[in-house]
Design the sequence.
């Protein structure tokens, strides 16, 4: 098969961009190595060693910790895929380390293909009894994704053999021995990837089985009613274990007023009938990504209609301005329309990453620019905020306001987000371009070189970009035969200029500009005007009533206490406020800051008084300093807010 995931592969793109290259280089040089060390320190790799030796007990970490190692393998494999041209150098040290972990994983696999170190070490008799919380299929999905990435990067089948043996085992078990779906979706999209590199139809059929059964499945309900018969209790006997809490969680997460609900795992209704994003946000994104892949393979219009409904619900009623999703801590997910609190926002980094996965698939099915626009918003804001500027600390939770006590951490007991971020950075090139139905699409404006084929025609494209600070982009194209090239006009741009070798191209400043040309090194120049905008939220969003947010180009801005003399809540930014910009190359590795006109209450007359008549109070003019949201909490700790009080909002 030609592809495992998207239409442009990781190794077809070399990124050379003033903004993104430092992040990507840091991911390769710092984060991947740092995370390997964390896998050792957390015991994740030791679990595989013990399982390989046939030992019992001694399991370390969360029961689904295998997935952290698999995501690390996927990220490292993408780095290997870039090869010498990307200055990754086919690093022999990294290659040897990847080989070491692959051998370790392979050694831990049982003869029948089963692989999950928690069950192998702790509850060998409990396999496949607790689908909704113990994550066997989830871990297996990440194993498969890592294997596909490793195979495509190296051409080696060592990890792919492990993954196919596991998938074959699952295919033997489901539905013949167990008829049920995973509580945490992930294996569905992984099986489609495996089908695309092996051309084995049974993997695609298995993915379809899991998708079609969701919402019809009584297995998850049965498990919650038979907690004493399923796995999970033994985890409580481990030093870090919380087996009883796991069982209690089943009641809290799967029941509503004493009745089984299932929405936490998107199992409340068949996927074809769902119309609102429900439950755990990461699970939802992985499910929707898998469903979109199935639609691409099988052309199921009912499933496609569901995806369109769910995307519309998420983006018009249940998404933060940063692209973050999932406001509630209790179940890490969605609640109800317009419930978007700021300081208590969950907006998990993994959910933002999952949204990017889903939207890239949606785009490649439709070439609708709204999906690429959302990827851009999420990349620069909801995702990028999740990683520190030194590459060693991470947000699990991404609030839009903080009193100063929320900070990134080097690792987590549940460490899903750090390696997830690493694999997205490592594979970023695959999200910049798309080749769909004989045409090339420039989806994201990131300095890079692309070498690929579009419907059999070799094409080379070089892009330089000044985003996000300036809207200037230049692209040169060479192709053996004419290939239409489509250039996205970002949703935030009201005025765009497009020229080819100096000749201006007429367009309507929306969607994609389609250029049909016999390409022979011509230069396409784009100019996207960047105007600072003050945004309001829908009136139904209670937490943003009377407030405005500030956006410039693809970036959402926030205020931090470190930049402002008065408490942030004192400031009021009128709707018509003047906002000036200044690029500071020394601040936060170089950022464009914004200064907004604002007012603050005068402090005179408040001595020894807690309340006074409103007519006696007054305000004075000041300024509110703003930095990009992604950069917050990289300096002195202090309050932060995205939405600012506005007397005229």
Sequence:
């Amino acid at each position: 098969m030609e592809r495992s995931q998207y239409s442009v592969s990781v190794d077809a793109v070399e990124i050379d961009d003033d903004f993104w290259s430092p992040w990507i280089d840091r991911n390769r040089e710092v984060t991947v190595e740092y995370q390997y060390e964390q896998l050792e320190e957390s015991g994740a790799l030791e679990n595989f060693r013990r399982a390989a030796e046939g030992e019992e007990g001694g399991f370390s970490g969360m029961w689904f910790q295998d997935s952290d190692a698999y995501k690390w393998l996927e990220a490292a494999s993408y780095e290997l895929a870039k090869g010498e041209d990307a200055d990754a150098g086919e690093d022999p040290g990294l290659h040897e380390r990847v080989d070491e972990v692959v051998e370790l994983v392979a050694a831990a696999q049982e003869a029948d293909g089963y692989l999950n170190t928690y069950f192998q070490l702790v509850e060998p008799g409990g396999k496949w009894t607790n689908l909704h919380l113990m994550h066997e299929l989830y871990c297996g999905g990440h194993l498969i994704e890592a294997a596909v990435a490793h195979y495509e990067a190296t051409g080696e089948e060592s990890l792919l053999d492990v993954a196919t043996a596991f998938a074959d085992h699952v295919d033997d078990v489901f539905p013949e021995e167990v008829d049920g779906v995973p509580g945490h979706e992930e294996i569905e999209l992984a099986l489609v990837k495996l089908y695309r590199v092996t051309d084995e139809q049974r993997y695609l059929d298995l993915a379809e089985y899991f998708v079609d059964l969701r919402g019809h499945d009584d297995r998850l309900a049965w498990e919650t009613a038979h907690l004493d018969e399923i796995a999970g209790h033994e985890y409580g006997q481990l030093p870090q274990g919380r087996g009883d809490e796991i069982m209690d969680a089943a009641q809290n997460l799967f029941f509503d007023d004493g009745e089984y609900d299932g929405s936490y795992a998107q199992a409340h209704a068949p996927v074809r009938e769902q119309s609102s994003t429900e439950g755990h946000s990461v699970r939802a994104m992985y499910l929707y990504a898998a469903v979109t892949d199935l639609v691409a393979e099988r052309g199921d219009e009912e499933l496609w209609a569901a995806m369109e409904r769910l995307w519309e619900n998420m983006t018009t009623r249940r998404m933060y301005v940063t692209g973050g999703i999932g406001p509630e801590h209790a179940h890490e997910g969605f609640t109800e329309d317009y419930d978007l609190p700021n300081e208590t926002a969950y907006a998990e980094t993994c959910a933002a990453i999952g949204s990017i996965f889903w939207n890239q698939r949606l785009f490649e099915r439709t070439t609708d620019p709204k999906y690429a626009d959302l990827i851009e918003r999420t990349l620069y804001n909801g995702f990028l905020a999740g990683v520190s500027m030194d590459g060693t600390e991470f947000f699990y939770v991404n609030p839009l306001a903080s009193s100063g006590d929320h900070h990134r951490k080097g690792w987590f007991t549940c460490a899903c987000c750090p390696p997830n971020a690493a694999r997205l950075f490592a594979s970023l090139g695959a999200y910049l371009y798309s080749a769909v139905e004989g045409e090339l699409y420039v989806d994201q404006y990131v300095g890079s070189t692309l070498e690929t084929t579009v419907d059999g025609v070799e094409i080379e494209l070089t892009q330089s970009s000044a985003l996000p600070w300036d809207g200037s982009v230049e692209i040169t194209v060479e192709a053996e035969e004419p290939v239409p090239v489509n250039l996205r006009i970002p949703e935030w741009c009201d005025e765009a200029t497009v020229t080819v070798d100096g000749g201006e191209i007429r367009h309507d400043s929306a969607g994609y500009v389609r250029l049909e040309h016999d390409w022979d090194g011509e230069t396409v120049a784009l100019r996207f005007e960047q105007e600072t905008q003050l945004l309001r939220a829908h009136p139904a969003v209670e937490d943003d009533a009377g407030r405005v947010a500030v956006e410039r180009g693809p970036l959402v801005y926030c205020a931090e206490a470190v930049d402002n003399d008065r408490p942030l809540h004192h400031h009021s930014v009128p709707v018509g406020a003047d906002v000036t910009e200044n690029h500071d190359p020394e601040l936060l590795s170089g950022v464009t800051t914004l200064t907004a006109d604002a007012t603050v209450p005068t402090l005179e007359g408040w001595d020894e008084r807690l309340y006074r008549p409103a007519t006696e109070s007054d305000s004075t003019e000041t300024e509110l300093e703003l930095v990009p949201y992604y950069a917050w909490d990289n300096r002195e700790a202090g309050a932060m807010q995205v939405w600012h009080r506005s007397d005229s909002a």
The chain has 16 helices and 22 strands. Residues 20-41 form the longest helix (22 residues). Residues 463 and 475 are 4 Å apart (CA to CA).
